[in-house]
Design goal:
This protein folds into 2 domains: 185 residues, D-Maltodextrin-Binding Protein, domain 2 (3-Layer(aba) Sandwich); 97 residues, D-Maltodextrin-Binding Protein, domain 2 (3-Layer(aba) Sandwich), CATH 3.40.190.10. Helix 4 crosses helix 11 and helix 6 packs across helix 11. Helix 2 links the parallel strand 1 and strand 2. It has 313 residues and is an alpha/beta fold. The strands form 2 sheets. The chain has a 6-stranded mixed sheet, sandwiched between helices. Strands 7-6-8-5-9 form a 5-stranded mixed sheet. It starts with a helix and ends in a 5-residue tail after the last helix. 44% of the residues lie in helices and 21% in strands.
């Protein structure tokens, strides 16, 4: 009789666990954006928010926790219970922090649910620059000229990408960090630097106006948003990097949580309702999930660590 009671109790426990899993989500879900409102990661999450709320049948609460280049918000996210109710807007900023040694966590402390958007790093120069190709810019540096390249922020992902390109080209650029993207762009347009390395979306307006011209970009293949810009690899430089945005949570997320989110995002992407938003932001929809996403995260984190080199603490 005692054995039967234990068996019944065990059965109820299993059924209760299965029921709890099946009912996710049962309450509001908080998504931490580790930057101030209005930035790229914030815009990405808030554009997805109403579409996700419809698919998940719950409210998505977006919480901006800025500081430390994303470190404060991501630290809060990774320390949360892995129950699917506290997630984060993830991006290559996470890998930048890891590569620079600025945080206690690594990519392996997160479960990555989806990569949704990406954009390339772009090498651009002023519209009237003497450089009309990456080769011309690299040759000038090889000949001993101090080629000044502006980036946004010391130790930022753009800074590391600029170092990675100089390594791939086997030259040394004089890399000059500015407080942000707008200041970097202004420096290039004003002739204070020879070129810049920034995300493609950030450069979209000055490129369209002709105030800047793009010489190359970091995708594996050409971008639909920049179809006339050659890749680094096309130009003979073995480097492929992306600025990406997605969703992640602390390590240990239940499978049903990941499956629920992936299903919702897949449906949104298939319906095409997010395409116009991506186009307006100058970003490319490039979803990845599961093993492919894990491989992407591992590879890009390794590239960032290698490129950070002496920049890291």
């Amino acid at each position: 009789m005692k054995k039967s009671i234990v068996s019944i109790a065990t059965a109820f426990t299993v059924l209760a666990a299965a029921s709890a899993m099946a009912e996710y989500p049962e309450k509001n879900i908080e998504v931490i954006v580790p930057f101030s409102a209005g930035g790229g990661n914030d815009t990405f999450v808030r554009a997805l928010q109403p579409l996700l709320e419809e698919k998940l049948d719950t409210d998505i609460v977006v919480r901006n926790i800025a500081g430390g280049g994303g470190a404060v918000g991501l630290t809060r996210a990774v320390a949360s219970d892995p129950d699917g109710y506290t997630l984060a807007a993830a991006s290559n900023a996470l890998q930048t922090l890891e590569a620079m040694g600025n945080v206690a966590f690594t990519s392996e402390d997160f479960d990555f649910i989806a990569k949704v958007l990406e954009e390339p790093y772009v090498v651009a120069v002023s519209g009237d620059s003497e450089f009309d190709s990456l080769e011309a810019m690299v040759t000038a540096a090889q000949e001993g000229r101090s080629v000044q390249v502006g980036v946004s922020g010391v130790g930022s992902s753009a800074h590391i990408a600029a170092v990675a390109f100089s390594d791939a080209a086997d030259v040394e650029f004089n890399i000059i960090p500015y407080p942000g993207g707008s200041e970097t762009i202004s420096a290039a347009m004003g002739g204070h630097v020879d070129g810049v390395v920034l995300g493609g979306a950030e450069l979209r307006s000055p490129l369209q106006s002709g105030r800047l011209k793009a010489l190359g970009m970091s995708y594996e293949e050409r971008s639909d948003s920049l179809p006339d810009v050659p890749t680094f690899k096309e130009e003979g430089y073995d480097l492929s990097l992306t600025v990406w945005r997605g969703i992640a949570g602390p390590k240990g997320l239940p499978d049903n949580v990941k499956e629920t989110w992936v299903s919702a995002i897949e449906e949104i992407m298939a319906e095409g309702s997010f395409q116009e938003t991506a186009d307006n932001l100058g970003l490319d929809i490039a979803p990845l999930y599961g093993d492919e996403l894990d491989e992407f995260i591992t590879t890009s984190a390794q590239i960032m660590r290698e490129a950070a080199g002496d920049l890291a603490q």
